[in-house]
Design goal:
Number of strands: 0
Distance between the termini: 64 Å
Order of helices and strands: HHHHH
Mean pLDDT: 85
Helix content: 55-70%
Shape: elongated
Radius of gyration: 22 Å
Amino acid sequence: MSLKYPAFTSSRLDDDIAKDKRKVFPVSLNLEQQEFIFSAKTKVLLQQDKDSTIIRQLALIGAKLIHSAQIAEVLEVISDNKRKNKRMGYNEL
């Protein structure tokens, strides 16, 4: 089987690349994070085996959770507590 294009060269035109809506984010994970994110349990829950898709789906799930109304209320209470603790002189719990 012969390659249509030389190895490691883009087959897309610069104009096509400029119109692309995707963006690549390099991510670095330490060993503990890798074991947690790519655990067998996570793969079963997401029904996904590809690491890149797992990262993308977990990021999407996390963003949806943070922007949900219930989580927003919880974060508001926590930040309110932090502000009150700082005002009262309780800097550490």
